[in-house]
Structure formats: C-alpha cells, structure tokens
Amino acid sequence: MKFVITKNILENVIASMQPFLEKKDSSAITSHVYLETKDNKLIVKATDYEIGLETTIENISDIEDGKTTVNGNNLLGIIKRLKNENITLEADSNNLIIKQNKSVFKLPTYDANEYPNINKYENLKELSISTINFINSIKKITPSIDNNNPKFELNGALLDIKSQKINFVSTDTRRLALSYLENISNDEMQLIIPKKAIIEIQKLFLDNAKIYCDQTNLIVSNNNTKFFTKLINGKFPDYERIIPSTLKYSFPLPKNILVESIKLVTSLFSNIKITFNPKYIIFESLDEDSVATTQIDIDINIPNEFYLAVNAKYLLDFLSTSNSEKIKIGFNESNLPFYLEDDKFYTVVMPIVLEK
Hints:
With 356 residues, the protein is α+β, with helices and mostly antiparallel strands. 18% of the residues lie in helices and 41% in strands.
C-alpha cells in the first residue's frame, strides 16, 4: 500500500477517528486505524466494537493498492508535527513508513485482515427522518442524558417512534427532556442510542445523510462518511407518566431576561430560588455563605405568590437550546415537578424541596 496526501486532509481525518479508538490497551487492534487504498481512494476506519467510523478520501495520488493498520494516536502525533505539505505513506510487511521531505517515521502495523468489520450491517431499515431535524432534536436533549448510571438504559437517549410523532427523550432522574417531530411514514419502534454516539453524530453530520437501524444497530451515512453504533439493550422508563397532565399555572416569559437574571445570581452557587409574584419575579441564590439576588418587574397572571427552588443548570441547559424569544413555564406546587416548553421541545424538572 502506498499513497500521497496533503497533511491537513490526513490530520483532520485521523483526528476525527480518535473518539472511536480503544484507549486503555494500545496493543489491541481496535487502538489502530485501518487504512486501505483501492479504486483511487483511501478508506480509513476506526472502531472499538461498540461504535465506529469509516471515511473515504479521494484527494490522494501515487497510489498502490493495499491495506494495513496502525496505532491511531501515534499516527496523529506524527502528522501534527509535520509541515503543511504532502505526506507519503507506504506499508511494508511490518511497518507503516511516513515520509515528508527528508523526515522518515516508522510505526508497527497489524494484519489488516484481522481488523473488525464495521460494514456487515447491510440489511438495516432506512428511517424517514431529515438529518438536520434529527440532529436538532438530539442536540436539545443531550444535556439531560445521564452519565454512568447503574441503569445503563439511562446513559442514552430514547428514540420513540409512535404512529403520529417521533419523540426524542432523555433523563438523568432529576429532569426529563423531550423533543419531537411529526412521523410521516416510519413504523413504530423504540431505540436507545448511547450518549457517546449522540455526541459524535452531532460533530460528524451537518447536512443530508441517511439513517438506518434495526433493534441492535444504528448507522448514519453520507457520500464519504459512515458512522456506526450499537444500541443499548434495555427498557427506557415510562417517561410519559412523569409529564404533568394538568398545570395550575402556565405563562410565557422572555428568555433573554431569564438567562441574564439566572446567570447574575449563580456566579458562586448553582442552586437558586425563584419567587413569582403577580407583579415581579425575584431570583436569589441558595448559598448560605453569600447573598445574590435580583428582581425583574413583570406582570404575571397568577393570583398568589409562588416559588420554585432548582439547580440553575437545568434551566440554563433548556434556555440555551430553545429557539424562541419567549418560553413557557408551568407548575402546580413548589415541591412538584415543573414544566418548561419551547416549540416542539420541553423539559420537566424536579425542584429542590426547601425546609419551611
């Protein structure tokens, strides 16, 4: 195998492979990237068995067909140090030789025939979902996906395809986020996509791509990139019962003023108390060692004063992904979950219960 490629192109591709490599065991073949030249193209793959990426590059020259593998982290370390000029890569029986001008590097290789096959999932069903809508929906619920929860199904996002709607759902047990799209023609099903996959999809795809799945795998692909992930095998909690069926109070609030007020009182401590009065709203920090408070004068259609205590991060996560100038807030009692809503996106938050 041999080819010549521009430094920037190769660096960008090998950098994009890093999240998909085995990090703990550098002797494992899954710590390697797979390189193959054929049909005047370079194919680069990386996978840790659970998640994988394949990219095809056409901007190469002086090609000799072949394939090899090489440690992805070490290869990236070398490429970063080279000048922004063409690089020659050539594989012999045991090494990958990297050349630029009078600089030469050798890295050990493994048998490419032993590399895991991430192309074996060919009989998956295509989902009829716009990639842009898919990415916008998962972006909104990403902050609410849990990390390292013993209930492993909570370490991912639920794609719940119903007859009329497609719900994207996540929860870290303190809040539940849901974004939805209209379902045109997809069959009803439920899939749990791992958080790592959710994050990587947002990095990789900005335009039109196709989405394929079965009950155990999900693939997103366009002309030059193919992303693969295994799905989480589990049962997601019955999220619909957590959503309040009725609300005692519900009213719109200006997003920018909310964000400004919340950030003002959370510079030192994230837990806050928000007091709603018919004529104003008071924001105050719950930090016992310092005082931070601010007030906005605004008419609210409620008969009595009411308060919510909450981790401000949950509010800011919602507000940062909402698109409207005004959001809707709804609540029943101070110690019950309250509701934040924007266009086709809402979050249900558990409040902090304060001692009276």
